[in-house]
Write a structure and sequence with these properties.
By secondary structure, the chain is mainly alpha-helical. The protein contains six helices and no strands.
């Protein structure tokens, strides 16, 4: 019994105490901005639906508003997540030579996505979609 107890104590030292999350457990090299583009389009659609709500006092309208806001916020976060993965894992120094403003473009996408999470400005949503489309174009240009 004592050996088993000692073994269990040693084994516990090798078990990770925190779980790490990553795009992939191995460097897969599979990157695609499509998820960010779809999420940005979804944010814009939800902002449009919010703007189109004619009255907001009924239970149905409040229910719709809550659902639109929930989806908008989740998809704004998806934009941020997907863009960060490509920016942090895919872009390398040669890409930065080709696109020296990629850091600023990424930072601006993250800031606009945050503004979309906390606000309901349709202009912010349109700007986010345009920024993500430009980011996707840059990404695909680097693949040529």
């Amino acid at each position: 019994m004592k050996n088993n107890n000692l073994f269990n104590k040693i084994k516990l030292n090798f078990i990770p105490r925190e779980t790490a999350f990553a795009h992939c457990d191995i460097p897969c090299g599979i990157y695609d901005p499509k998820a960010a583009e779809t999420a940005a389009e979804t944010v814009e659609k939800m902002m449009s639906l919010i703007a189109d709500l004619e009255e907001t006092n009924s239970k149905d309208a409040l229910n719709s508003m809550a659902r639109y806001v929930d989806v908008k916020e989740k998809h704004a976060e998806i934009v941020k997540h997907e863009v960060r993965i490509i920016w942090g894992d895919y872009f390398k120094p040669p890409h930065l030579e080709q696109y020296p403003d990629i850091h600023d473009k990424t930072w601006n996408i993250l800031k606009t996505a945050s503004a979309c999470r906390v606000g309901t400005s349709l202009e912010d949503a349109k700007k986010l979609r345009e920024q993500v489309a430009e980011f996707a174009k840059i990404f695909w240009d680097t693949k040529k």
